[in-house]
């Protein structure tokens, strides 16, 4: 009777052990409770909501891990078109802690992810509306999110009940604790009076606080010769974008 070479059995065992960490990571994703990983907030026209020293003002996507366990993103992908081969952006070997948030840059940079650095998806989002699909590495769709038209620094944000709305104070990397409006017009502080008259401006917390029309010494500035100036004051308790 021919004896089997034990070397092959040892090599097979070593290969199996080497694959266990990856398998465990994918199993963790598959076994996470429903709704564990979600698209939490999106900005498609970034002006000042998030600034990066390398990439400037990238549009961004925020993921949230609402489960009770850590999730490794290496078994996930994001795409705008799941039916177009090669259009998906495979996410790197990064762990989102339970209850944690992670920002992804929606830009066309092909820079390879480095631990601790920003994650670039390699595709842009349109401020006129777009689609985002979160799927696993087997192309099983986890979430489809249709993003409506957005204005500068207005985010499409997820509420605690899982619905989405418009937020004029985006919170990248944190919970969506600021007010989320049902319409874009309300988030912009405008009200549509269709058939009644022109748009009316909603209550604005920013007021003129001080004006100097002939400045001599009140505000010396290096760049120019004693400019006249206007001071604005935000009377509210929240940040207000002037755009």
Radius of gyration: 25 Å
Roughly what fraction of the amino acids lie in strands?
A: 25-35%
Number of strands: 15
Find the structural class using helix and strand composition.
alpha+beta
Tell me about the largest β-sheet: 5 strands, antiparallel
Mean of the pLDDT scores? 80
The neighbouring-strand order within the major sheet is 7-2-1-10-11
Listing every helix as H and every strand as E from the N terminus to the C terminus, the arrangement reads: HEEEEEEEEEEEHEEEE
| Helix percent band | 10-25%
Total number of helices: 2
Poorly predicted parts: 15-25, 27-34, 191-202
What is the overall shape? elongated
How far apart are the termini? Answer: 83 Å
Explain this structure to me?
Residues 15-25, 27-34 and 191-202 have low confidence and may be disordered. The protein is 12% helix and 28% strand. It is built from 2 helices and 15 strands. The relative contact order is 0.14. By secondary structure, it is an alpha+beta fold. The strands form 5 sheets. The protein has a 5-stranded antiparallel β-sheet with strand order 7-2-1-10-11. It has a 4-stranded antiparallel β-sheet with strand order 5-4-8-9, with no helix packed on it. It has helices at 6-31, 184-187; strands at 37-43, 60-65, 71-72, 76-79, 89-90, 95-96, 101-105, 130-136, 141-147, 155-158, 164-167, 190-191, 200-201, 206-212, 229-234.
